[in-house]
Specification:
By secondary structure, the chain is α/β, with parallel strands linked by helices. 46% of the residues lie in helices and 18% in strands.
Amino acid sequence: MDRENARSWLTTAVEEARAGLAEGGIPIGAALYGADGTLLGRGHNRRVQDGDPSLHAETAAFRAAGRQRSYRGTTMVTTLSPCWYCSGLVRQFGISRVVIGEAATFQGGHDWLAGHGVEIVLLDDAGCTAMMRDFIARNPGLWHEDIGETE
């Protein structure tokens, strides 16, 4: 995948992450793009806002995309390396590619996905990293709850 295009798509996920942060939630955003580049769905982590531990950014974008005949050729764009739960969603539905803003603050299942044929585009975006580092520093308890760890 062209990195310029990947960076362009990442802006949608970053907008979602900022929206989640503004709502008092965890700043992780995602978007699902079709094989033709059409934005199918977008969303952000809403665990805090909705009290729903399953509402991660990737699942919110996936749900917003609605039912598709096939997910082959689609691209999930996320500001942060997808956790195991979201990595499972990518595998389960055959999403072909994952564009990741950063994996410095959290390394989820993207190496596992790559090992199973999913194309991974890791952008190492400084803005995504800074947003997460700032959030984690100010909200360590909430962050550890989100990733299923104790402090």
